[in-house]
Fold:
Amino acid sequence: MPIYEINGKKPIIEKDTWIAPSAEIIGNVTIGMNCYIGFGAVIRGDFGKISIGDGCLIEEGVIIHGAKKVVIEDNVIVGHMAMLHDTTIRHHSLIGMQSMVCDNSEVHEWSILAERSTVMKKQVIPSKKIYGGSPAEEIGDITQKHIDSITFGLQAYSELTCQYVDNFKKIG
Structure:
């Protein structure tokens, strides 16, 4: 498993979390239960602390780093190739593919950041809102359809995580 200690700081990974062999988890990182950490993800806690809650989906190519801290609460989806730096992402939020979330920003619960968007330094995305663009601007409100879609995605990846934990095998 691609887990590394630096300066006496070791990652803590809870049960039933699956980490791809090409992902790298470094230093002061805590990852909760039943998370999926995709191929090529880099979670680098060499300066600041990184905390990822239970049931999170960190997809392929995601980069997470910070000089102070990154907090990702429970049941968050971080899309392919997103970058998070010194930020707080509240529970049940979705960060779209190739998005960037910058220093001292916050994405509140049940919010969606559209793909290829940028949350600027110190920007706050309110609860139950959809933001998009660069810089990210309000697009609309979260509806029950969006909540159902986030819930479905989390459940699908929870099941996939179990399959990876139980059945992933290198064959070549």
User: Anything to note?
Assistant: The chain has a mean pLDDT of 97. DSSP finds one helix and 20 strands in the chain.
